[in-house]
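Holo prediction — adenosine-3',5'-cyclic-monophosphate.
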Amino acid sequence: MERTLSIIKPDGVAKNVIGEVIKRFETDGIKIAAMKMIHLTKIQAQGFYAVHKERPFFNSLTDFMTSGPIVVMALEGEDVIAKNRKLMGATNFEEAEQGTIRKDYATNIEQNVVHGSDAPETAAFEIGYFFNDLEIQKR
Ligand code: CMP
């Protein structure tokens, strides 16, 4: 059993696709182990995306991520990191497969609806960034 962090970004919340995204997770057999809606501060967004701090898009990305509320979830299931990435599609929605969340709902490479952890180590950091142990359901 594996866990990953999913974020429905401000554009996804504004487009009213929270339910649609969660439906795709549940339809794929993924369980939600923790969930909340929050509005990040700039400092919190910079901390979350610290690995990208040297990238040219860092300032714009952290502005975008603070532009409205987000939904953060700890997802659980077998191979859930890869499963979630497949459901999301490529970071750049123009390269994403048909039927993926980003292909269906992204606006551009930045406003790409969802975030998902890319490896077990990043998943552990990212889940711990938003949830403490008591907030994660154990099955
Ligand atoms: P995410 O999967 O959350 O990881 C980093 C985010 O930076 C990415 O999705 C996009 O929202 C944003 N981003 C903006 N420009 C780029 C870019 N050129 N390459 C990768 N990510 C970008």
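READOUT: Strands lie at 2-8, 31-38, 70-77, 114-116.
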